[in-house]
Amino acid sequence: MNSREIGNLAEDKVTKFLEQNQYKIVDRNFYSRFGEIDIIAFKDNVFHFVEVKSGNTFEPIYNITPKKLQKIIKTMNLYLKKHKINSAYQIDAVIVKNNNIEIIKNISMF
User: Fold this and answer.
1) pLDDT of residue 109
2) How far apart are the C-alpha atoms of 30 and 96, rounded to whole Å?
3) Which of 30, 44, 72, 97 is the most exposed place for a label (fewest CB within 10 A)?
4) Which of 110, 108, 109, 101 minimizes the C-alpha distance to 49?
């Protein structure tokens, strides 16, 4: 299985996990010239722009670099403008490791 297929499986797991936790999935794999948002979900009047990272032999969160976060922010801003969204929003990371799923809410880099 290549890395894209592994990533798609992780995104499918996370989508189901979010739905089971009362998130409404709004969009998946939203692409812009800046990058991609894996999952866009909505819960409690907040849009969640979700970056999914998976791995079993390392800490997947370390793959969200400042450069990657900047691409996510630019893509998120484009999505907000394109869809005329005037609501609260945040960027979340969801980590899939050894079949465990962990949400890290409202990530940012300093």
Assistant:
1) 65
2) 20
3) 44
4) 108
User: Which domains occur in the chain, in start order?
Assistant: 3-104 (3.40.1350.10)
Map tokens 């893509």 to a residue.
75
Per residue in 45-81, pLDDT (tens digit) is 999 999 999 987 778 888 888 999 999 999 999 999 9
- Pairing mode, strands 88-97 and 46-54: parallel
pTM of the model: 0.92
Q: What residue ranges in 6-65 does DSSP mark as E strands? A: 24-31, 36-43, 46-54
Tokens of 37: 């948002």
- Dihedral, CA atoms, 56, 17, 77, 26, nearest 10 degrees? 140
